[in-house]
């Protein structure tokens, strides 16, 4: 389309990014970029803030699998006025289920989202979370078919976006370490596996929100790392995801794209942490000659840098404020 100035902001999940490694803490720099760009493309965890989603209206909310396909030139993004959202809730006890339904209804009442239905999986989603050799947390799903069945039912009811919510088994001890800023997000990797699997199978806008209910123990954590504070004042994670999916662009195969859809050729730049440059978005931009702005202010547990990979199209930027200034200059060219 190439008629507007479009950038992407990617913060890989579960790598203890100093900006974006918690919940919604990458929203302020994203919004600063949105002030100088026509569109900013992000994946959900960049702007998800538990009950809050404070991203500006010109921020496009795209699930990670679809985002990768976008960077590979296989998928285009079609903006919509509003999606019809189907909600999949884990097969949890009545207390958790009621909490999930109340979250959906709260956002529906206050934001006017369209919900086609809520389906509880026929059995508990069998998930496990563990730490990899790199220090990142990843996960495994033992029975993805129960998620797929629920998604099928919601799509048959007319949903064109899917909100997933599983009760993820993470110990209180691990969460305490996370809230102290000592370890990466322990459930983000599993969330990515869930949403990627559904996105790949059904090809619709999708995102995941943990279905956690431990409010009676939140006071145990004391005053936490400021970037994780949203999680100890509310565990209503469905709020941010439903708000994001409300206007999330629809992924469309490039062969069926319209002139008004966004393609990789429309992208002016990619912004990301300086030492997490090994993902599909970064390597695809390198191959296509799209500038990658590597922000030194944002560091992860990885050491995948411009020098280590021999990347030639990466521009090191000290901070997000400098990134915004550079984007302004790029736009004027």
Task: Describe this protein's structure.
The chain is α/β, with parallel strands linked by helices and 333 residues long. It has two domains: 6-80 and 250-332, Rossmann fold (3-Layer(aba) Sandwich); 84-230, Rossmann fold (3-Layer(aba) Sandwich), CATH 3.40.50. 35% of the residues lie in helices and 20% in strands. It contains twelve helices and 14 strands. The protein has helices at residues 27-36, 44-47, 64-71, 94-111, 144-156, 172-179, 188-202, 230-233, 238-246, 280-288, 306-309, 320-332, and strands spanning 6-9, 39-42, 59-61, 75-78, 84-89, 114-120, 127-131, 137-141, 161-165, 205-208, 250-253, 267-273, 292-295, 314-317. The protein has a six-stranded parallel β-sheet with strand order 3-2-1-12-13-14. α1 runs parallel beside α12, α4 packs across α9 (238-246) and α5 (144-156) packs across α7 (188-202). It is globular, with a radius of gyration of 19 Å.
